[in-house]
Amino acid sequence: MIRSELVQLLANDNPDLSPREVERIVAIFFDTISQHLAEGKRVELRGFGAFSTRARDARIGRNPRTGDPVDVAAKQVPYFKPGKEMRQRLNV
């Protein structure tokens, strides 16, 4: 499912809201999650899962075209851990 499909489903389920209002709600939702992760916080949605970040160490990678070594800086990457209810739904 892509974002536009999500917006369309929510707009269909909530006829009192315009598609533009639903798009704004979805944007605020995703922006808030991204902002909290950028601040190093954890976001938990009960029954769905938890978003957090994990640290990746600096390393030496390789340019796939030339094979030359390339320095890759340390960074934070997003991590998602599914909740118990989601795992149960997937493994019925």
Folded structure, characterized:
With 92 residues, this protein is of the alpha+beta class. It has a single domain, classed as Irregular (HU Protein, Chain A), CATH 4.10.520.10. The protein is built from 3 helices and 5 strands. The strands form 2 sheets. It has a 3-stranded antiparallel β-sheet. A two-stranded antiparallel ribbon has the order 3-4. A hairpin with a 3-residue loop joins β1 (43-45) and β2 (49-56). α1 crosses α2. The longest helix is centred in the first third of the chain and has 20 residues, at 19-38.
Secondary-structure map:
Blueprint: H1 3-13, H2 19-38, E1 43-45, E2 49-56, E3 59-62, E4 69-72, E5 75-82, H3 84-90
Antiparallel strand pairs: 1-2, 2-5, 3-4
Helix pairs in contact: 1-2
Briefly note the structural class of the backbone: alpha+beta
Pick out the low-confidence regions: none
Residues in helices, as a percent range: 40-55%
**Adjacency order of strands in the biggest sheet:** 1-2-5
Could you say how many structural domains there are in total? 1
Overall form? elongated
- Calculate the mean pLDDT score and round it: 95
Percentage of residues in DSSP E strands: 25-35%
Within CATH, the superfamily carries the name IHF-like DNA-binding proteins
- Tell me about the biggest sheet? 3 strands, antiparallel
Q: From the 3D structure, determine the CATH topology.
A: HU Protein, Chain A
Oligomer: single chain
CATH architecture: Irregular
Name the helix and strand elements from N-terminus to C-terminus, one letter apiece: HHEEEEEH
How many H/I helical runs? Answer: 3
The total count of strands amounts to: 5
